[in-house]
Write a structure and sequence with these properties.
alpha/beta, 7-stranded mixed beta sheet, two-stranded antiparallel ribbon, 25% helix, globular, disordered N terminus
Length: 259
Amino acid sequence: MFGLDSYRCAADDESGFLPIGTRLGSNPHCPVRRAQGDDIPITPEDAAAFIRANTAIAAPSVVPEIRLHLATEITPIWQATEAALARANVDPPFWAFAWPGGQALARHVLDRPDTVRARRVLDFGAGSGLLAIAAAQAGAARIQAAEIDPVACAAIRLNAALNKVGERIDILEDDVIGRALGADLILVGDMCYERPLAERLVHWLRAEAGRGVTVLLGDPGRTYRPTEGLVEIVRHRVPTSLELEDRLEREAVVWRLLP
């Protein structure tokens, strides 16, 4: 099992989860594994089939209004190691977990719908699409979800449809750092877990803040969260699992990032 700050690797491949591939067999819920080195892109159909086969529909602990396709203790992907995922041609499925920072920020959006109402919102590093869905439910005028993982993009589509906001969320399957996307508000949940990404991301976000864009970060104390130029908005205690974190509860903070 893996967490945001570290991976637990193992040599076995007995987790039981169904691998992703580019061709479907006779059973549409059993994608065929893609051959190693094959550069055929993952199809949305394969990705959706993988998600349905390896997750369960559940509500995040502090955002019960929203349902997502998530890994739980009863789903095989919960026990999948990084090594097993790599052999099945699957990136670590960050999209399959409602991380504490994202939950805290989604809770804030739903509790304070004026934060997003009638605004153009970008959910960066959208993962499951939790923040985009919360923004849609709270009345945002336009919602974009930016995500580079094609499987995560498929998860966003499934989760948005599950919450009846599928037609309101535009998915950007691209690295949008450095681009001006016309957002009034950028939501970022739990993205400061890796130094190169965090440094590049925060540099861009500060530039966007300097142009008048509101930037909100949801973070439970990740290692590479910026330490300066932040204004605290609210704190939420988020139950977690020892399989994902080093404790059973995280205090996640919603911050406003300054230029």
